[in-house]
Write a structure and sequence with these properties.
This protein is an alpha/beta fold. The protein folds into two domains: 5-36 and 170-249, Rossmann fold; 40-163, Rossmann fold (3-Layer(aba) Sandwich). 32% of the residues lie in helices and 21% in strands. It has nine helices and eleven strands. The protein has helices at 19-27, 44-49, 65-77, 93-98, 121-125, 143-150, 184-193, 209-217, 234-246; strands at residues 5-8, 30-33, 37-41, 59-62, 87-90, 110-112, 132-137, 155-165, 178-181, 203-207, 224-226. The strands form two sheets. It has a six-stranded mixed β-sheet with strand order 3-8-7-4-5-6. Strands 2-1-9-10-11 form a five-stranded parallel β-sheet, sandwiched between helices. The longest helix is centred in the first third of the chain and has 13 residues, at 65-77. The radius of gyration is 21 Å and the shape is elongated. It starts with a strand and ends with a helix.
């Protein structure tokens, strides 16, 4: 069957300039957006159970804006006063600037990398006397603690938020030609919400090796895996896939 409807398992883009809207126009395909997963902050009780002493650390490593939000939320809820001497190390410049939501930026010691955690190691290694706190999700990348251990950087992992399946009960059925996923959690959410899901002619597209592996482990058929050498983004990969698939129905 011709591809006419696509469901992207992410929030709808906030800007009209999103490549997804360009894709819809180019291919004459309807694209809907629906997050299959959502982030929930841990409770104070859950945080206490980890026995993490925030004030025993001299620096914090932030890998995302969500980590920043939940770090300051937990401290506020537990009435922990973070000292002005606390140093902040951020994976990217945009994450570093997001700190302005909570602190006076120019009065703090803030360091940032180029967007890749592995590249942060050089910066962190120059501050080996620090005791780093690393706020993460319950489904964080394993490379983060592995790299810190490997480079003998003193740190504590604190799980401050978790990824949970969204309630998709309002979707009475999956009436789409293509489902697009970006994380293994999205696949888990699909099967949790629709335990009797039958793929049949529905195409599944995934972004990243871990997501592709999750599709296969779930016993589903993977029809499109991105990124591709000739299509580094999901929208570019989808465009090629749709045009190739639909031309046989002209």
């Amino acid at each position: 069957m011709k591809i006419k409807k696509i469901l992207v398992s992410q929030p709808k883009p906030e800007t009209d300039k999103s490549p997804y809207f360009e894709l819809a126009q180019k291919t004459n395909v309807k694209i809907d957006f629906r997050p299959f997963i959502q982030v929930e902050g841990v409770t104070c009780k859950e945080f206490r159970a980890q026995k993490v002493d925030v004030l025993a650390h001299t620096a914090v490593i932030f890998t995302s804006k969500t980590a920043i939000d939940n770090f300051f939320r937990v401290n506020c809820e537990m009435r922990i006063l973070v000292p002005e001497t606390m140093k902040y190390f951020c994976v990217s410049e945009s994450i570093a600037y997001y700190l302005q939501k909570y602190i006076i930026y120019r009065k703090r010691k803030i360091f940032y990398g180029n967007g890749e955690f592995a590249d942060m190691i050089d910066i962190l290694s120059k501050h080996k006397d620090e005791k780093f706190l690393v706020p993460l999700s319950d489904q964080h990348k394993k490379e983060i603690p592995e790299l810190l251990h490997k480079n003998s950087i003193k740190h504590t992992i604190a799980i401050l938020y978790k990824t949970v399946s969204s309630d998709l009960s309002d979707l009475s059925a999956i009436n789409y030609d293509v489902l697009v996923f970006f994380s293994p959690s999205g696949i888990k959410s699909l099967l949790k919400n629709f335990p009797e899901f039958q793929q049949n002619d529905i195409k599944i597209a995934s972004f990243g090796a871990h997501t592709a592996q999750a599709v296969k482990e779930a016993g589903l058929r993977l029809d499109l895996q991105a990124p591709l050498p000739e299509a580094p983004s999901m929208t570019m990969a989808l465009e090629q896939f749709i045009l190739e698939h639909n031309k046989q129905y002209k």
